[in-house]
Design goal:
alpha/beta; Aminopeptidase; seven-stranded mixed beta sheet
Amino acid sequence: MTQRAFSVISPQETTSPVVFASPHSGSDYDSDFLQASILDGLQIRSSEDAFVDNLFAEAPRFGAPLLYALKPRAFLDLNRAVEELDPALIEEARPRGLNPRIASGLGVIPRVVANGQAIYRGKLSMQEAQRRIDTFWHPYHAALGGLLRQAQQRFGQSVLIDCHSMPHEAVASMPARPGALPEVVLGDRFGSAASAVVMDRVEAAFVDAGLRVVRNAPFAGAYITQTYGRPSRGQHAVQVELDRSLYMDEAAIRPNSDFQAFKALLSEVIGEIAKIGAEDLPLAAE
């Protein structure tokens, strides 16, 4: 089993202040973790953003780095704060007030995967929780912070595109006319994580590619967007959620027949996003 927390694909020449990152597409399910779980090999992958790292793999061709996690979300959630330890799962963890993510089993060490399926038979030790955080959480965030600092030092600003996927059912119940359900949800925590200029440019890149886009509902961004988005300092963060049904068989967790075509379409979107801030365009509102 690997003890590496992440991989980075760097461009031959960095020409963009945009950093693409995928914290939930990791698929290194080591044997110890699988043996500790009561789920089978398919069930345990249900909360994984499968293939998202592959979909965004063209980013370096457009002068922007791609960072992606190697360990799966079911093992450790990089989009949670290290303090979000679940007392129902972690021995000696203390409640920290009402936290709906922890209450639903989705702390930094998740207790459940999709549809509330329990991962473990019993509890985990605090030592094991801390080992995961020290070995995988801190290195990933150190790498992400480093890439964003480099972008800001070189370009005077940074733009994080935090790449995720969502089950089709997450948008299937949204009110919309037939054939008009959103395919992409962009989250900037209602304007607090990215300037309007950045958000408009990211949205336009998807819309111009023919994709239906909404903002901040049902996903507005979580720990990563909140932590790294500081538009007043020239630090912008946008969470991107892609409807999984566009490119994969969700039940079998495998690419569908549209995968390559969707990846090619997304390559155009990535190319447009990578131009943000690389041109003579201010990213903050006047």
